[in-house]
What we know:
Elements: H1 2-11, H2 15-28, H3 34-43, H4 46-62, H5 74-86, H6 93-101, H7 105-118, E1 141-146, E2 154-158, E3 165-170, H8 175-179, E4 187-191, E5 194-195, H9 201-209, E6 214-220, E7 233-237, E8 263-268, E9 274-279, E10 288-291, H10 293-314, H11 353-362, E11 367-373, E12 383-387, H12 393-403, E13 408-410, H13 429-437, E14 441-447, E15 450-455, H14 456-464, E16 468-471, H15 478-481, E17 489-494, H16 498-507, H17 524-541, E18 547-550, H18 554-570, E19 573-576, H19 577-580
Parallel strand pairs: 12-16, 12-17, 13-16, 17-18
Antiparallel strand pairs: 1-6, 2-3, 4-5, 4-6, 7-8, 7-11, 8-9, 9-10, 11-19, 14-15
Amino acid sequence: MTAEVMAANDANYDPALSKLITTLKEAETLSNDQEIDFLKALLESKELNALVNVHTKVAKVGRDDRLAPLLSNSAVILYEVLEQLSQRCHLNEDCREVFHLLQKPHLQSLLHAHDAVAQKDFYPHLPELPLEMDEDEETIKIVQLVKSNEPLGATIKTEEETGKIIIARIMHGGAADRSGLIHVGDEVIEVNGINVEGKTPGDVLSILQNSEGTITFKLVPSDGKGAQRESKVRVRAHFDYSPDVDPYIPCKEAGLAFQRGDILHIVSQDDAYWWQARRESERTARAGLIPSRALQERRLIHERTQREVNDSESKKGSCASICTTPPASPLIRSSSSSSSCRQPKTKKIMYDLTENDDFDREMIATYEEVAKLYPRPGVFRPVVLIGAPGVGRNELRRRLIARDPEKYHTTRLMRTGEVAGREYIFVTREKMEADIEAGKFVEHGEYKGHLYGTSGESVKSIINAGCVCLLSPHYQAIKALRTVQLKPFIVHIKPPEFETLKKTRTEARAKSTFDETNTRGFTDDEFNDMIKSAERIDFLYGHFFDEEILNGDLVTAFEKLANTVQRIENEPLWAPASWVQ
């Protein structure tokens, strides 16, 4: 009877505990050691078995992505919602009820607790060293982690002064971070019983790679071991990055690859040169290393300086033109002796291209802090269409206006039948030149001897009227338009590759926009100019674009533009953080 009861109890034991109990029973037949009896009684205790079962279930929940938090700043969002509702309480009874409900202390406390859990602000902290401890005595902690296919999520380095192996960084979301027991600055004494004194980080890595099952670390705790709190910073990457080809990254396996335009959650900026980040779309993933803004800026400045020296040495006496400079080059030069270079026949735009390009070359695009910009009923963001001459921006704009003339408004050249003050506002040349000098125009130019431009006030008046302002300015107007007052959504209309561009324009009998005197189709040279201009625009201003639309098939491009405009009006979208604050 006793054996049956014992078997039933063993069936409820954790498998690992059952295995240990069996091993102890075998050892008990060989020895009557009191320590074995003590361990046997401990392992058979209901309390320990219950703790192991709880640990197993918690660990299983932690591995379930379905239960991972979607965000860690719900309290911040709560205050943003309250601010929005406060302006509408007098309009709707439901708004007023929700506004009062969200101010309840119990609900707000719940959200704060949720954020604390989502930010992992519940990990245990090692107690501070007691004051009466002998200064020569070192506290040792032993940490065991089960090795899996997942990386450990920590990097190590050799301390220059002492030669000790130190934990350099803990990757947010990794195994070491989740354990809560390994901290930056901890000194590694042993790994699986192997003393690491005098060894290099590469030697320690080899020990870890050759280890299986449980990995045991013997560590000397660092002086400061605060729990890592994830920052709430989100950025849009303005460049492509691959750790596999970065010779300076401390650990390629710990790196995070990304592309220009990706939204990254910067979870830690503790290291001056290497931030920890994860893609916003991968909220439960382990964080990876990316170059910090300071490191990337220094790297780009160094590369541009080197290329500038090489470029000046290899191109002495040659002619360079802004229309033929390869867009892949980070140094875009303009030469006054460019008469032998073919220039595209475009409208005369009132920009000092040389001066403006020099300014743009000094802009070092790395990261831009962003936040979600929520649409406001009746207040629409301006839609700015940027593109090379002849790519079809005006046709796309015309079709969008034709779909809903009451909703979409724009500015353009005066046509037959138009009346001053209705389609255009006419002023004297002296008045307009004075306004241009005062910075009242977001874009200005000269066409057939007349000045024309788009004033900032005209854009604001369209927005205030509850309409969508559509603009297709010269690409150099981006900096003047991209302000917190206007909050534009910028779309780059791009041409397809040469063969498709030529085929689609020929079939549509498209007329060249490069020749003001003759009505004719595009030439091959003009198609090439269009493609080169688009590449140049993308190189200089691509990091400012919210959307890119390839205008190969006009119908497809228009539908994508229409869907994009609809999305702007109805969905919260990433925008510069300064526009939201």
